[in-house]
Design a protein that fits this description.
- There is one protein chain.
- This protein is α/β, with parallel strands linked by helices.
- It has one domain (2-171, 239-348): FAD/NAD(P)-binding domain, CATH 3.50.50.60.
- It has helices at 10-21, 46-54, 89-93, 102-114, 164-169, 189-193, 196-199, 208-214, 242-256, 266-290, 302-306, 319-327, 331-347, and strands at residues 2-6, 25-29, 41-44, 65-66, 69-73, 80-85, 98-101, 124-126, 131-135, 140-143, 148-150, 153-156, 180-188, 216-224.
- It has a 4-stranded parallel sheet with strand order 8-2-1-12, covered by helices on one side. A 3-stranded antiparallel sheet has the order 3-7-4.
- Helix 1 runs parallel beside helix 4 and helix 10 packs antiparallel against helix 13 (331-347).
- The protein is globular, with a radius of gyration of 21 Å.
- Mean pLDDT is 86; it is low at 205-214 and 225-236.
- GO terms for molecular function: monooxygenase activity.
- This is FAD/NAD(P)-binding domain-containing protein.
- Keywords: Monooxygenase, Oxidoreductase.
- Residues 1-156 form the FAD/NAD(P)-binding domain.
Length: 349
């Protein structure tokens, strides 16, 4: 199957890797030159790291460190007000909880995608190729240079501002401001170690070894509300699952289009994409809603989130339940289960 992916971010590269490994011909169009990638720290949670490991992703090459503990301190007094030591997530959920610099994660995904030694045909990465139009009916994209490119499957992985949305649903879906903003920055570790007021925060439950391996510490401050400059949130209102969900998306598409024989009809592609929607809609919707409140204020979103939880499963209410829900999910197994149900239905007709 010939596949075009628009966007070479985490989601686009992950999708390219998953589909090349299943024998598909994949081409990614990226409008940038990928020469000045930026970013800060990113979670690579167990539900994502176990997938990456199966794809031949090199965690050492990408300089990832294992999340071992959590510390929260007052920004005014620098006094620690919360600490926690993490369990061995790899033994619990099949993969470690890792921290990475976004650029390192992206670079290793790119390497795996285009590596000629990998499984399947290497992904063809086309840079400085801006997509200006989609045709969902005939499976084509148009670049700014007016060239038209066709594929059996188009995957839009170019972010929340993608123009592909209106071609699929018939109308644009504008991005809505939340009223919150996050300021993130990186500080060289040695600058903190040399400050007597801050150095103590790198001792005890926070693993100095892990911090100093990357030589940088990632920090963030979240502010928001009507008086944005006056309100600072002590509890992050997100699940740290953005990158992980993009990796899950790619993994699901790879499994759904595994073992297919060319040529695929439009109807079969369409039916398999319905399976993708069944796999992803509830999982991603629940995760997004749960990200609207901190884990200590889940009661604010419980009713909305419950409608997307698996049958018979309640919305998480404590740290262990959140770990089980977020980290304990196996995207590969779940997708294969849905795919088998779909194939069984075909066989019965």
């Amino acid at each position: 199957m010939k596949v075009i992916i628009v966007g070479a971010g985490i989601g686009g590269l992950a999708t390219g890797i998953a589909l090349r490994r299943k024998g598909h011909d994949v081409k990614i169009f990226e409008r940038s030159s990928l020469l000045r990638e930026v970013g800060a720290a990113i979670n690579v949670c167990p539900n994502a790291s176990q997938v990456l490991a199966q794809w031949g992703f090199d965690f050492k090459r990408s300089r990832m460190v294992t999340a071992r503990s959590h510390l929260r301190a007052s920004g005014i007094t620098l006094q620690t007000n919360f600490t926690a030591t993490y369990p061995d997530f790899a033994s619990l959920y099949g993969g470690p909880w890792l921290m990475a610099h976004r650029v390192d994660l992206h670079s290793e995904l790119r390497r795996v995608a285009v590596d000629p030694e990998g499984i399947g045909k290497p992904v063809e990465l086309v840079l400085q190729a801006e997509v200006v139009d989609y045709n969902a009916e005939n499976g084509s994209i148009t670049l700014r240079d007016e060239s038209i490119h066709y594929a059996d499957l188009l995957v839009a992985a170019d972010g929340v501002h993608s123009s592909a949305i209106r071609h699929v649903v018939g109308h644009p879906t504008p991005v809505v401001a939340t009223g919150w903003a996050v300021f993130r920055w990186l500080i060289p570790t040695e600058e903190l170690e040399g400050d007597p007021e801050i150095a103590s925060l790198l001792e005890g439950p926070l693993s100095v070894q892990d911090v100093t391996r990357s030589r940088t510490l990632s920090l963030y401050m979240k502010i928001g509300g009507p008086m944005m400059s006056e309100k600072i949130s002590n509890q992050p209102a997100d699940q740290g699952q953005g990158g992980a969900q993009a990796i899950e998306d790619g993994a699901a598409l790879g499994e759904i289009f595994a073992g297919v024989q060319d040529p695929l009809t439009k109807d079969e592609i369409h039916d398999r994409l319905k399976v993708f929607e069944k796999v992803r809609l509830r999982r991603v919707s629940a995760m997004q809603i749960l990200s609207d409140a901190g884990q200590d204020r889940v009661f604010e979103v419980r009713e909305r989130a419950q409608q997307y939880m698996p049958e018979g499963v309640k919305v998480p209410s404590n740290q262990q339940e959140f770990w089980d829900h977020n980290f304990g999910y196996d995207i590969l197994a779940d997708t294969r289960c849905h795919l088998q149900a779909y194939l069984k239905g075909l066989a019965s007709h």
